[in-house]
Amino acid sequence: MRRRETTPARRGSPRRAPIALALLLLGLLVGAPAAPAAGEAPEQGQAPGPVAVTINRYAAGRPVPARFLGLSFEVAALAELAKDGSQGNLVGLLRSVGPGMLRFGGVTADQNVAWSDSATPAPPWASSVIGPSDMKALGTLAKRSGWSVLLTVGMAHYDPEAAAREVASAHAALGPYLTAVEIGNEPDSYGRHGFREGPWGSQGYEEQVATYREAIGRLTPGVRIAGPDVSGSGIFPDWGFTEALSQTPALLTGHHYPLGCAKLPPPSIEQLLSPPIRGLEARSLTTYLTVARAQRIPFRMDETNSVSCGGVAGISNTFASALWASAYITQAMAAGTVGINLQGNPNNCPGYTPICATDPAAASAGRLTARPDWYALQLTHSLVGDRPLLSEIASPPPPAAPYNLVVAAFAAPKQVTKIVLVDDEPPGSAPLALQVAVGPGLTRGTILRLTGPSPQATGGVELGGHVVSSDGSLRSPTHSERALVQQGELNVSLAPSSAALVTLEPPAPRKHRHPRKPSASPRR
Questions:
Q1: Are 410 and 374 in a shared domain?
Q2: Are residues 138 and 285 in the same domain?
């Protein structure tokens, strides 16, 4: 972290923990400033020396898959959002960053919402139901927006036949837009929540999943299964491995929340944007992907956001969440996941949610508003299809502390290079001067900046100097900020608590002029 004060107490801050090694494995690095000379510590706001960054354009990973970006909602919100396929601005919002993937799951898939149709009466435990008309409306939303659907069927209240009828209806309504079906939400927690007695583990879960799959297969053969949709990476080596061997799913899935709502000390913006959190996230992704790659099954982070339990107002609904999401999305891209779904709630603007309705009238009309998280999707959606590149920040001699900086680079078609920069330092810190070695062949480009009044701000977020309009569109900057590369090096400044997407291109091809033919001699 860059020094904001000259007091010795700042040197002991836990945010100074280095995480470069963990993020190097993911193509993302946290760098550090050059150590100041004795007695010459920079004052608050004083600019440190340039930070050297190297982009290896000759070490590209696999392309970021189509539909990488996604949103996740509770099944309780399915009927409400499905009707917005025919009204309001949801279709426009989705199109502006898509095509992507909508996931419907969450705790309500198991505890609150049941399937009901002519053959399936509503069970007494359900507080609400969804039925064939909701699936038909969801099919309209998927087709109009181009977004596919990952659907979770409940398993806490054991009923394979009802789940089979729900999947059959979803398949009939969605067709190719139904990506896969998950069986149960966070089933590893069933024992803790009283839904299963005695020892409950992955083996018992897989036995019941097999019964569900058999029932689903009888009505809808060939439906793809995803799972195990666990609560975190800590239990994934057991649950993910068992799922892979038992079910051979089309997709392995799991959840991630960097901060817990009930943990002490209480979650804060400082924690959310700290190097230790980035290090934990790097290790979490490594755990998930180690299992997935060993079994040669793709992994998707199908539910994630800032703070668990619906988020915390003052953290999850702030510009800090956009900075966190921008870095985590690129982190997941570089690591090799096949997708990420930001969890949201269309009726809880103070919590975590990329989009929401500000009041009941807006919800009824399908008028949704882009929240800070949404800007992270806007910043990163152009990276889909690009190939991650290895990025490295020069390490300073000790005892210098690391910058709270994330760098991710991507190779795009036509020899274009894109670089995402996220500076998580608080306001008042010195701006960063970056010297990025990109190598020969790049000479020009643009800088698209993600800014906000402060990390605590719940409004005023802008991308390229503009806000997302009501129809989901984002105006192009009136005057694009230019990036200039000289002798293979990009020099760019980054303000604290901001992010940027730098797009670099090779020189424009020269237009060849054809020599004029000599005019004929005049006749005499």
A1: no
A2: yes
Same domain, 25 and 162: no
Strand partners, 503: 418, 446
User: Same domain for 57 and 73?
Assistant: no
In sequence order, the 6+-apart residues with CB closer than 8 A to the CB of 33 are 2, 48, 49, 51, 396, 400, 401, 403
- The amino acid sitting at 153 is V
Number of structural domains (the chain) is 2
For the chain, residues with pLDDT lower than 70 are 1-48, 395-402, 478, 511-524
CATH number for 333: 3.20.20.80
Strand 369-370, strand 355-356: pairing: antiparallel
Residues 36 and 129 in one domain: no
Cβ–Cβ < 8 Å for 133, 116: no
DSSP-assigned states of every residue in 271-287:
HHTSHHHHHHHHHHHHH
Residues 242 and 290 placed together within one structural domain of the fold: yes
pLDDT of amino acid 28: 46
pLDDT above 90 covers a percentage of the chain that reads 81
As beta bridge partners, residue 500 has 421, 449
Predicted pLDDT at 61: 95
Same domain, 358 and 437: no
pLDDT of residue 31: 39
Closest CA to 224 of 170, 182, 191, 264: 182
- On whether residue 332 sits in a domain, the answer given is yes
- Does any domain span residue 515? no
* Residue 360 sits in the same domain as residue 424: no
Q: Give the Cβ contact number of residue 36 at 10 Å.
A: 15
**Residue 517 located in a structural domain:** no
CA gap 342, 325 in Å, rounded: 8
Q: What is the 3-state secondary structure (H, E, C) of 146-181?
A: CCEEEEEECCCCCCHHHHHHHHHHHHHHHHHHEEEE
Structure tokens at 437: 């070695």
519, part of any domain? no
Say how many C-beta atoms besides its own lie within 10 A of residue 157's C-beta: 13
Distance CA 325, CA 332 (A): 10
Distance separating alpha carbons of residues 363 and 357, to the nearest angstrom = 5
pLDDT score recorded for residue 48: 59
Quick one: residue 226, left, alpha or beta (phi over 0 = left, psi -120 to 50 = alpha)? Answer: beta
Domain that holds residue 263: 69-383
